[in-house]
Structure formats: structure tokens, C-alpha cells
From TrEMBL:
Protein family (similarity comment): Belongs to the LytR/CpsA/Psr (LCP) family.
Domain Cell envelope-related transcriptional attenuator: 64-219
Biased composition (Gly residues): 312-331, 428-437
Region (Disordered): 304-336, 424-448
Protein name, UniProt field: LCP family protein required for cell wall assembly
InterPro entries: LytR/CpsA/Psr_C (IPR027381), LytR/CpsA/Psr_CW_biosynth (IPR050922), LytR_CpsA_psr (IPR004474)
Domain of life: Bacteria
Record domain LytR/CpsA/Psr regulator C-terminal: where: 337-421
Length: 448
């Protein structure tokens, strides 16, 4: 018994010694959003730092979040929500004091991820809190090398790759079909913009959400969380690769892991904050209002964003679609089986990208976006021979889309947005990026 206690004691301090912690003075923020008892909000930073072991991934000065997520965990309600904040978002940034090597900054308009360059993690934390109104309890930062280590510690992550991927910039080359991605491949998949989809950051976020859902499947459906020895080993691997605030102790991490045992994968939801093109710069994004504020307010109050009060499962994913997606004589078609091209004939800039982003988060395979040669009077999903059910799966998600056969098409259906486009039934009626519905970890397509 004494030997076991000493072994556990040694393991604890071995893991604790792995953690790189940073002091964040949240008292300096001034007035902060209220904290909801029992809920936990963690700012997760995928860092793009290119020094040390990360130098192989290109040159870039300073450090910015390559990805920025608010992880909202509600153990009492047995649900978790991951909110992606696209790095191209233009927001009102607060003033930050100089901090170490960071020069500080005056309050200004800028990209949401630039706060870290001016004032480090403390400035990024302050910015996220003030912009969203969500009380942040902790932060976790993982760089490229660290992310690879986490994936490799799981033995890789199984994914379905619908089409071959060749992206030299992301150093990613994958064949179509079921693949177990190792750390290097997973990093390339998460960073890839040009080998798949339309090359936008919002489309990339959809793939990131799908991968993170698959990774959570590996963690939560395996024996990582249920076996104390495996949990200790996993935490040991993870803590070697990340930086946290000094209040995110090993005990807190263990409590979070234990709490996640009770959360069904259907209730782990991934959403992207509603956004649209910045009128001042087509290469930047702004919040879609009031939907973005409604999402932030719900998270700040620990409210369910799916509209599903049943905690037994079934949040996120395809919740709330009006038609049921099952046309074509009752044939059931899963979103992952539907390949779709989105064409914007409605006229709003960037609308096809926004709609494609929403479809991606719902699990559909978006192969491209663009503009149609001919604009129909009504928003229409065109389909080739034998693809009616696939078209209905898309149309049933839309407020007002019809379907029509086009014998010239193959296996990919075309969603053509006309002047009457009103969005999807499970969003707040906007242009495809304006709702708070997302996809759940249970929807991650790991098998082809």
C-alpha cells in the first residue's frame, strides 16, 4: 500500500512537472463578466509560433492563435460546446499594457488573434472576455509540435477522407478512404486550406471541428477516461505539450476529465460564431448580429444553445431541421454521403462560402463554391440521375429550396442560391453562417 502511494505520488509530480504555466493577472482586467457556478470556460489557443521545433512550418514573427476556441463545459447539464472564433474576425480590441517582450497596445480595431502579438496571452484573454461577454476561467495553448504529440499519444485518429488531398503548403498528401492520421498528418489536415474546400479560413474551421470530434471519439469511447492508469498516461503526454494559466492545476484537469465521462458525444457540440464578410475588407470577417450576441449570451448564462432540453443525447448535429432530410422515396441519406457544390446567385458577397461553411459543420461534403452561369427564379438543389435523395437531404435543411433533376450532373449535387434565399431552418434565418446550430462530436465521420 505504501509502495502504491509512493508510485502515485511520484507519477503526480512527474506529470505536474511537465506543465508549463504562465501567470495571468485577471485582476488587471477591471470589470469582468459574471461567472456561472458549475460551468467552466477555457480559452483554447492553437499557437502558430514558428521557433524551436516548430521552425519547420515556415517563418512568422511573433505568436498568434492559428485557431481560437472557447471550450464551454457544463458538467451538471452533461454537455460541452466548442465555439470557434475565426482568426480573420475584425473586432474592437481593448487596450493592453506592455508585457515582457510584448509592447502593449491602445484600444483599436483589429483581427481578433492580433491581441496576443501585442500583449501576450493576458491581452488575448482580456480581449476574448470583453468581446464576447463570457467569463474565461482558464487558458490552454498548444503549438504545432504539441498538437502532433497529443494525436500520437492516442495512437492516431481515425478519419474518413472523402477525396484525395494534395496540399504542399500544409505538407499533406492523403488518399481517399478510411485513414488513421498520425500527428504530422493530423496537423496538416487541421492547417490545410488549399488542398480541399474553397481555401477560406471558415471552410478550414469546419474540417477542424470534424477532426476534433473524431479525436474526442477516440478519447471518450476508448478507455482513456475510464482507466486511472490510462488517464494518468494521457495527462502525462498532454501536459508535456501545452502551456496553461497557473490555476489550471493537475487536479482541475483530472476533474474535467472525470466530468467528461458523463457527457454523451451527442451533447458535445462544435459551433462557429455567426459571421459574415467585413464591408470594409472582403478578406476579413465581422460578427453577424444579433445571432453572435445571442450565442455569447447563452454561453455566458450556461444555457443550451441547441434548443433541445433533453439531456439524453441528440443535441447539435442535424437538430431542428424542418423537413427531415429523407426525400427520394424514404431513402435515408446521411450528410456525409452527400457531395455538394454551392453557387451564389443571390448577390451577397461571400454568401456561398458562408453557406458552405454551415453545410460542412453539419457534416455535408462541400467540394466547391462559386457563381452559377444561370440563376433560377427559386433557390434550387440540382441533382443527377439517382441522386434525388441526396438533393432532398440538402433541400430539407433550407427554408425555401426546391429540387430539380439535371441529367448532366454526376454524383455531386448543386445548391444554387437565388434572390429568394432565406437560409436554413435550424439557424436564425441568416445567410448560412448566422445561426447557433453546429455539429456534434458524435457526427464525426470516421468510417467511409
Amino acid at each position: 500500500m505504501i509502495g502504491s502511494s509512493l508510485t502515485a505520488y511520484a507519477a503526480y509530480y512527474d506529470i505536474y512537472g511537465n506543465i508549463n504555466q504562465e501567470d495571468v493577472d485577471t485582476d488587471a482586467f477591471g470589470d469582468r463578466p459574471s461567472r456561472v457556478e458549475g460551468a467552466l470556460n477555457i480559452m483554447v489557443i492553437g499557437s502558430d509560433v514558428r521557433t524551436g521545433e516548430n521552425a519547420n512550418y515556415g517563418e512568422a514573427e511573433g505568436e498568434r492563435p492559428d485557431s481560437l476556441i472557447i471550450a464551454h463545459i457544463s458538467p451538471e447539464n452533461r454537455r460541452a460546446t466548442m465555439i470557434n472564433l475565426p482568426r480573420d474576425l475584425m473586432v474592437d480590441l481593448p487596450a493592453c499594457e506592455a508585457n515582457g517582450d510584448h509592447p502593449g497596445m491602445q484600444a483599436q480595431r483589429g483581427m481578433i488573434n492580433s491581441a496576443m502579438s501585442f500583449g501576450g496571452v493576458q491581452c488575448q484573454w482580456k480581449a476574448v472576455e470583453q468581446i464576447t461577454g463570457i467569463h474565461i476561467d482558464h487558458f490552454v495553448s498548444v503549438d504545432f509540435t504539441g498538437f502532433k504529440g497529443i494525436v500520437d499519444s492516442l495512437g492516431g485518429v481515425k478519419m474518413c477522407i472523402p477525396e484525395p488531398i494534395d496540399d504542399d503548403k500544409a505538407k499533406l498528401h492523403l488518399e481517399a478512404g478510411e485513414q488513421v492520421l498520425n500527428g504530422e498528418e493530423a496537423l496538416g489536415y487541421m492547417r490545410s486550406r488549399y488542398g480541399q474546400g474553397d481555401g477560406t479560413d471558415t471552410a478550414r474551421i469546419g474540417r477542424q471541428q470534424e477532426f476534433l470530434g473524431a479525436m474526442l471519439n477516440e478519447v471518450m469511447q476508448g478507455d482513456v477516461l475510464t482507466s486511472p492508469a490510462n488517464l494518468t498516461g494521457f495527462l502525462g503526454s498532454v501536459t508535456e505539450t501545452m502551456t496553461t494559466d497557473d490555476e489550471l492545476t493537475l487536479e482541475v484537469m483530472t476533474d474535467i476529465a472525470v466530468a467528461m465521462r458523463e457527457v454523451d458525444l451527442n451533447n458535445v457540440n462544435f459551433v462557429t460564431v455567426p459571421n459574415g464578410q467585413d464591408p470594409a475588407d472582403p478578406n476579413r470577417l465581422v460578427f453577424s448580429e444579433p445571432q453572435a450576441s445571442e450565442l455569447f449570451d447563452a454561453i455566458a448564462k450556461d444555457e443550451d444553445i441547441t434548443g433541445d432540453d433533453d439531456q439524453g443525447g441528440g443535441g447539435g448535429g442535424g437538430g431542428g431541421n424542418g423537413g427531415g432530410g429523407g426525400g427520394g422515396g424514404g431513402q435515408k441519406v446521411e450528410p456525409g454521403d452527400v457531395s455538394v457544390e454551392v453557387l451564389n446567385g443571390q448577390g451577397t458577397p461571400n454568401l456561398a462560402d458562408q453557406v458552405g461553411q454551415w453545410l460542412t459543420t453539419e457534416g455535408f461534403q462541400v467540394v466547391g463554391t462559386g457563381n452559377p452561369e444561370v440563376i433560377p427564379e427559386q433557390s434550387t438543389v440540382y441533382y443527377g440521375p439517382g441522386q434525388e435523395a441526396h438533393a432532398e437531404a440538402i433541400a430539407s435543411e433550407a427554408v425555401n429550396a426546391t429540387t430539380e433533376e439535371n441529367p448532366a450532373l454526376g454524383d455531386t449535387v448543386q445548391l444554387v442560391l437565388a434572390a429568394d434565399w432565406e437560409g436554413f431552418t435550424s439557424t436564425s434565418g441568416g445567410g448560412g453562417g448566422g445561426g447557433v446550430e453546429g455539429t456534434s462530436a458524435a457526427d464525426a465521420k470516421q468510417e467511409c
